[in-house]
Amino acid sequence: MKSSNDTIKRLFEEAEELGVKIHMIESYDQIKYEIINLFLDHPNLDKSICVVDSENYDTQSLSNYLYEKGFDLLLPNEQVDYGEFIENLKNVQVGITSVDACVGETCTLIIRNRRPFFREVSLLPPVYIAVVRQDQIVISLDDPSIFKELKGESQITIKRA
Hints:
By secondary structure, this protein is an alpha/beta fold. It has helices at about 5-20, 30-40, 60-70, 80-90, 120-125, 145-150; strands at about 50, 70-75, 95-100, 100-105, 110, 125-130, 135-140.
């Protein structure tokens, strides 16, 4: 997928309308500082975070950094009991995952079900951080490149109202 400046501009406009904050970052390391700033800006949040393994950031480095800064971490893996994980996730303030795609015209994140724990981490904590690469942003669901990226995993059906 290829994002244009118009697509990114549209994403920012939609995000602003929805009250969603977007931070453009230049490097993986900058994610660490954005997370720290989030907690500084919201001192009422306790320092608990769930980090799901991702190709969009260095999970090990991020987890080590947050641990050193005194965060309580929930790090799911495929061996964990699902029910126990969900109970622990209910006590986490911030969830962080990557996504498969982002639709600029609606500020919609696409997370395929094949990824263990991604949906749960994006929905249960009160604060969610999605790490989206610029090449994962498309203008709309009508953009054919989104299906090239997502094909092969499962049937994709979009129903329009």
